[in-house]
Amino acid sequence: MEFNGSIVEFLENKSILVTGSSGFLGKVFVEKLLRVQPNVKHLFLSLRALDSASASQRLHSEVLEKEVFNVLRTKYGAGFNTFIAEKVTPIAGDNALKNFGLADDSDLLIKLFNEVDIVANFAASTKFSERYDVALEVNTIGAKNVLDFAKKCVKLKMLIHVSTAYVCGEKSGVISEKPLKIGETLNQTSEVLDIEAEMKLVQNCLKELNPDRVSKREEKEVMEKLGIQRARTFGWPNTYVFTKAMGEMLIGKYRGNVPVVIIRPTIITSTYKDPFPGWSEGVRTIDTFLVAGAEGKLPCFLGNEESILDVVPGDMVANAVIVAMVVNANHQFSYPLIYQVCSSQTSPLSAIKLRDYSHSYLLKNPLTRKDGKPVNFVMPICLPTMDSFRRYIFLKYMLPLKVLQLVNIVLCQYFRKTCVVMNRKINRVLQLVELHEPYIFFKGKFDDLNTERLRMAVSANKTEANIFYFDLKCVDWDDYFINVHIPALIIRYVMN
Asked: Could you confirm whether 240 is annotated as catalytic?
């Protein structure tokens, strides 16, 4: 792979449509484009909204007002809003609908078809146990709808689709950068994976859930259970990765002549350095356990020396997306080109290190509660297997609960409320850990040969290689977690 041009120069005067710009990674991507190439022609940001006024409101409240845009805001000062108005147009759209729900004869849709050079699809529902109907709409059908839209863009140079490396399921060994085939499954089930049949299954299930007899909460629970059940039927651990996998399949089958690149990041964490270190949004995946530990609510930690935690800072993923879409623009491939943005091969991190980082930071920086009392942080017990975790939960929590339930019966339901609360907390923890189990004890390592080739293609231009960095070998995990990620996470989500 060779690239002799300039990424920054390529972006000049280009029109880019971005879906999912209200998400963490989408914001980092949009901010980077506007900062490194202010002469980009236009960014069209598709946002789920009822009308253009609502889309504009979402753009400002959920995107531009976030801290990630502080560097840009400082750069332009009083002219920031003018700059944004010239370069960014919010679109009231929904990728679950054809052409984002825009009328076929609308001036905006015609403008998009005539002007858009690149389509970047970040839209996703990332909740592991999302309702199956919602996850299918966004992650599967939505991916196909974005592809169909891209096909109609007369100047299109690239469709770049952000997926997840965990579409591989729970494979072990080295996991290659290969596209998924339509109908492919990850186990030996006799049931055929038919995406249209899955959509019909959801529709029929929703029809059977009579609103006169079933509450919205019950409907939600049924849809969540259905998603997990269907995912596991075909070998995927949860609804999120299953529906993302089906989205990849549809893009691969129906892409036609559209140049398509699929980016598969692993576990995305806070920014490494750009636009500033440690920016994140929301408590997700590994951050759930780090925050619980900082609050003194994590008595045990799952993991062992052999478990590899594959994490990638968000700004590195955004950089890889930008480089991939520029280097491969207008190139034709016989199949979608896959880039796995990961660290397990080049810069592996032992899962147990996460506990050590948290312990190290909190020992040096003890926290206090809002009432002024110190947080009682103790080193969590390390549980190396799920069996050891289940035994620990049974002896420490479930057994005392059973005793309390017996006492409750004798005392005429005196401890009923306490029993209900304890049981709910235990079930919540069990569900949380079971959903994360495939990643806590993940046995695979992601091949990133294509991604390394991509990095090498732009390495000759030192200036741009430094601007669009995504070499995980350069990351010192000790420094990143102890001095960047954990303190930023605690300041944002524990101390506020």
From this structure: yes
